[in-house]
Amino acid sequence: MSQAAKVTLYTSAFCPYCMWAKRLLGQKQNVEIHEIRIDQEPSQADIMVERSGGLITVPQIFIGEHHIGGYDDMAALDREGRLDPLLEQSAEANG
Predict the structure, then answer these.
(1) What class has domain 5-94?
(2) What angle do CA 13, 26, 58 make, to 5 degrees?
(3) Whose CA is closest to 68, among 92, 84, 45?
(4) Do residues 49 and 69 touch, judged by C-beta distance below 8 A?
(5) 53-89 burial, b if ≥16 CB within 10 A, otherwise e?
């Protein structure tokens, strides 16, 4: 059995883009989502800003250690057929 792609989502409550990101990733095969709610863990917000190169909006999405950006960025990758290969690469790297 292959490993899952590890995706980290930095989110907050009542964020529609965060919900859309989780829904899109939920439709993918073999994805393990680690959600970090920065509204519940404010210390994680500083980590998110550092990891994302200064971005302060949610969601901030990482496939493995690779920063994807926000929901719009991930949705664009999916429309272009580039999201699934990134997820597969991450899963293989975890294998």
Answers:
(1) alpha beta
(2) 30
(3) 84
(4) no
(5) eeeeebbbbbbbeeebbbbebbeebbeeeebeebbee
The residue written with tokens 């409550």 in the block is 13
- Enter the pTM of the model: 0.94
Length of the chain: 95
DSSP state of 63: E
What is the residue extent of each domain of the chain? 5-94
Q: What is the CA radius of gyration of the chain?
A: 13
pLDDT tens by residue, 8-20: 999 999 999 999 9
Residues 58/11, Cβ–Cβ less than 8 Å: yes
Grouping H, G, I as helix, E, B as strand and the rest as coil, residue 19 is: helix
